[in-house]
Amino acid sequence: MYIVCHSHLLQGLSQLCRTVPPNATNMYDVRSLKPAISITPDTVECPVLGCARIVERQRGTFRREETFRCAEHGIYISASTFEYDHPHTNLLAMDAEDFGLFARLTGAKAESGRLGRERSEDAVTFNVIRGLEREGQLDAVFSALLARPIQDAVPSYWSLVTHTGATHPLLEAARRAFGENPDYGTEPDLLIETADTLVVVEAKLGSANETKPTHVGVLSRYQRAANGWYATVFSGTPQSIAVEEKLYQLMRCWLLGSWMAKEAGKRFVLVNLVAEASDASAPSRFGAHIVASEERQFERATWERIRELIRGKDSATADSRTTTLVEFLDHKSLGYDSRGKLQAAFATRVDE
């Protein structure tokens, strides 16, 4: 389920930091991709507007092989999506400082090899949260999303400490407490820490919160571990939540996250960050099984809500990073459906 990144990837990304100029990107979105592509049993056409190249159609596991690559545009193509030659192409408005951070974190990031994919929720999370952080808007946005004051928020992307690239010590302790294998353990997309609050963010891009354990035998371990902490924060059984409701990922984030907050003496909020049209029933489905309180809450938030919270900020500067971030959320693509029709990742603005 998780793949540990090897040192050569970190070295390669570090090299990119030295060779890629600030803000260099050839990221494609709904403005530069074809509204529809031709798909046959054996071939797929390049999705970039104006490109006539045809590649062999791949099936099953996505592969980065030359037979599936458009050499002109530097992307590996499948019938539903594509992946860039280099993961930095999937990053937004980056400068040398951001590239350095990205290289440091991907040295320890599980599944870092997928960051170059069009549908990478990790890449979108990094683009959006890093943009908010650099523009000094992280506190204001999360205060609005959670309807509670958030001050001096410190983000840990993919649960990694930014200045070292090491796993956050609270998460390391939680993995040990619940007997997880460090190489296959729970990895929240984002941790945000303040003086009195721990926010765990489980982000989704084009997928619902439907995950089940590969081996149901692990559920009893989660239920017994950490002196039976499970019974403190859940009213439903692991079987009903993880298997019947298919909310295994949210279950683990709530279980480990609430334990981490308790150990740190902080309030806890689990945020499910999704597209507006995705999984609106998650609060009721998941909420029916958890023991929430003033100090322990579950919230659903949307990418579109973040977009509207920052729209118009720094509008006097047309090339500001905030403006670029809004445009990214306005035009982000989400690949092609089974009919070869292009999909937008997020809902169109009401006034468009």
Mind explaining what this structure looks like?
This protein is an alpha+beta fold and 352 residues long. It has a domain at 138-312. Helices cover 34% and strands 14% of the residues. It has 11 helices and 12 strands. The chain has a 5-stranded mixed sheet with strand order 6-7-8-9-10, with helices on both faces. A 3-stranded antiparallel sheet has the order 3-4-5, with no helix packed on it. Strands 1-2 form a two-stranded antiparallel ribbon. A hairpin with a 4-residue loop joins β4 (75-77) and β5 (82-84). α5 (169-177) crosses α8.
- What's the order of the H and E elements? HEEEEEHHHEHEEHHHEHEHHEE
Main sheet: strand order:
6-7-8-9-10
- Count every helix, treating DSSP H or I runs of 4 or more residues as helices: 11
Report the structural category: alpha+beta
Low-pLDDT residue intervals, each spanning 5 or more residues: 1-24
Share of helix, binned: 25-40%
Strand percentage = 5-15%
Biggest sheet record: 5 strands, mixed
- Distance separating the two termini: 40 Å
**On the 0-100 scale, what is the average pLDDT?**
89
Radius of gyration of CA atoms, rounded to a whole number: 20 Å
Number of strands: 12
General form: globular
